[in-house]
Amino acid sequence: YTNSRSMHPLERYDMSGARLALTLCVTKAREGSEADLDALEQMFRQLRFESTVKRDPTAQQFLDELEKFQQLIDSWEEPVSCAFVVLMAHGEEGLLKGEDEKMVKLDDLFEMLNNKNCQALRAKPKVYIIQACRGEHRDLGEAVGRDEMVMVTKESPYTIPTYTDALHVYATVEGYIAYRHDVEGSCFIQTLTEVFMTRKGPILELLTEVTRRMAEAELMQEGKARKVNPEIQTTLRKRLYLQ
């Protein structure tokens, strides 16, 4: 008996090709978002991403820009290794609010880069970072211990499912508010960019560190201490190293 770990000690995504990033950010009525855009720009530069920013998209422009990004990736002259999409806006569970106050479905945005719709990213990592509220709940925190999450993935050599190789990182858990400081930006984007720029390791390990730091932070909102932690949904099949 051999366990799968000893068979594939270092299954990792090939990151030798191009790295492309798209940031769609509603800044209107979202003070502090410029600080987040600055931090992301610095991170993408350090991690060698070709990065594009679109400010204040309407709901329709969220879709249009993602479609343009998908076409850009598919027509890129060299192999593409990885794509990042950062979505920052007001939101509700499963929805983002465009600059025009209309809603766009996150699933429609995720769909555009899946293994069926974006051939150049087939079997390649697609990372979505979502800084948006997912409801109205506020977390005051609980006095308890800790939890552990283990993710194990297998892969088939011949075909892959439509929805693999994606990583969705939400600023907060389902139903809850995502906090943003009017000057310093959001706790989530600031913590994530800091960890991604200063730590090495597979991305899920880095995200665990982001979660740990955010879970320890006390955010003052409406005069009360609040807690917030990101939520990570992954269908990655291999380890993803950005450094």
From TrEMBL:
Leader peptide range in chain numbering: none
One Gene Ontology CC term in the entry: cytosol
One Gene Ontology MF term: cysteine-type endopeptidase activity
Subcellular location: Cytoplasm; Nucleus
CDD domains listed in its UniProt record: CASc
GO biological process: cell differentiation; positive regulation of neuron apoptotic process; proteolysis
Pfam families: Peptidase_C14
Keywords: Cytoplasm, Differentiation, Hydrolase, Nucleus, Protease, Thiol protease, Zymogen
Every Caspase family p20 domain range: 30-137
Keyword Cytoplasm: yes
Domain named Caspase family p10: residues: 156-243
Entry's family note: Belongs to the peptidase C14A family.
Subunit structure, as described in the record: Heterodimer of a large and a small subunit, both processed from the precursor; the mature active form is a p17/p10 dimer and the intermediate form a p20/p8 dimer.
Protein name stated in the entry: Caspase-14
Organism of origin: Jaculus jaculus
